[in-house]
Amino acid sequence: MNLANIIHWGATYFPEREALVFEDKALTYEELNACIHSVASYLRERGIRRGDRVALYADNRPEWIMIYYGVIALGAAVVCMSAAYKRYELEHRINDSDPVLMVTTEAHSSCVPPREELPRLGEVLVIEKDDTLSSLGETKGAGAERVQIVDCDPGETCTILYTGGTTGTPKGAMLTHQNLLYTAQNVCFHERMVATDRSVCFMPLSHVFASNHIMNSGFYAGATLVLHQGFDMDEIVSSIAANEVTRLYAVPTVYIRLLNHRGCHNHLSSIEYSFSAAASMPSEVVRQWMDRFGLHMHEAYGMTETSSLVTFNHLYRHKMGSVGTPAGVVEVRIVNEAGIEVSQGEKGEILIRGPNVMKGYYDNPDETAKAIKEDGWLHSGDIGFLDEEGYLYIVDRMKDMVISGGLNVYPKEVEEVLYTHEAIEECSVVGTPHEEYGEAVTAFIKLREDKAASEDELIRFCKEKMASYKAPKRIVVLEALPKTPQGKILKRELRKIRPT
Question: pLDDT confidence of 263, banded at 50, 70, 90?
């Protein structure tokens, strides 16, 4: 078993089909496969062996994909470093994961700490300064030696992705060949992905959503990946039209921006399937998307520790507001604080078990034991409930729940109401310190360019639609909400802001 075989299969079944499009260049499956073998052969010459770890620290680019599969083909594991990491973050993750080699780019090499601060790291390769790696796009792997792909055990580590998990402390989730292949197959089946599909990817490949749900699954299907370095509105809208993209994968903030983009409707006519991940999608945005484009907004539930997919909101039985039912043989339970399974419709922590659940956190048995407990059940740290048909609804993160005056307030519920106000483009609700209530429900909002609304007006609006204790006591208007590179709103940064 080896994840890298999905490119070999593509080259066998669809050798002349476009596998990868980036800017004005394209690679067929045969060419991409040759480039990957070229990388694998080169890294083997440099001493990379089965069980080693290789850190990959770069923006989205074709070489990222070639190096990723080239490392995996040798039976080694890729440690995916976010291109957004700065020096301190990088130092922690390199020393934590013990890679024998790091591959980066000129643009990011200045963030790599001095070698004396990285005692266990072997060499560092900079793509632009390396003759073999820098020429991959031009040679297209011509004349590359074919490397025997290592037949790994299903439970061998394939990639390590860093995540805050349920505690917020960065940990390296070890995802196995079985985890990633199972999820790729699961995504293809549930989304009905086929070889003629063309998916756009502007999300960071270092994140599980892009690398596994979009990239690995697309290649598993023999489809085409239209890759972008990042999200630029005009560039992406033009690319979708020019490349006849059929599948749009994005996060809620991107869909909100597309809805507010005048005239983009004419450029998105090729889209047949739209999918949102990484954060809960407000129901009002889903309704607007359906009204504007006539497409369901498909959602799923997943996390890094589950190799992405846990549940999927079906093509043939779609429920708005839900994240669907457990996908494939994945199991989901809802339990209370005592770990006892709750009744249908009752809220509690979401537990997950299945072949998609990670092996554990790298070199961190204590945190692994906290996350994966009895009988292999992963404790997600998320709050949700199951309806009478087994559809899962996400209420909120346990750590994001606000306790105001002794009452529990779920931020997502308040956000859903705020999003129905015509003046609000984006919002996020957190708890901020309050002398009387302990925590005050505080909403941080971004207004639409041509709209206005006062704090009093918005608070009254919420009180008309929900219990008064849930309504924000404070509303703060910002020009932009802080976000991760994946587009998630950073609630921890909002909590640092002290409303006047």
Answer: confident
Domains, the chain, with CATH or none:
216-397 (3.40.50.12780), 401-495 (3.30.300.30)
Checking if the pLDDT of 95 tops 60, the result is yes
The runs of H, that is alpha helices, within 260-375 are 283-293, 365-371
C-alpha Rg value of the chain to the nearest Å: 23
Nearest to 477 by CA among 494, 491, 461: 494
Question: What tokens were used for 479?
Answer: 């020009």
Contact yes or no for 418/477 (Cβ under 8 A):
no
pLDDT at 500: 66
Residues forming beta bridges with residue 426, ordered by sequence position: 446
Residues 490, 492: Cα–Cα separation, whole Å: 5
Rank 113-117, 176-180, 304-308, 483-487 by mean pLDDT and report only the highest: 176-180
249/233 Cα distance (integer angstroms) = 14
What is the rounded distance in angstroms from the CA atom of residue 459 to the CA atom of residue 465?
A: 10
User: How confident is the model over 446-468, as a mean pLDDT?
Assistant: 89
Q: What pLDDT, in 10s, does the model give residues 316-361?
A: 888 888 899 999 999 999 999 888 999 999 999 999 999 999 999 9
Closest by CA to 215, choosing from 52, 97, 60, is 60
Contact assessment for residue 10 and residue 19, using Cβ atoms and an 8 Å cutoff: yes
Mean pLDDT confidence for 249-278: 85
Q: Which of 187, 197, 287 is nearest to 243 (CA)?
A: 197
* Closest C-alpha to 423, from 450, 396, 451: 451
d(CA 411, CA 260): 24
The SS3 call for residue 238 is: helix
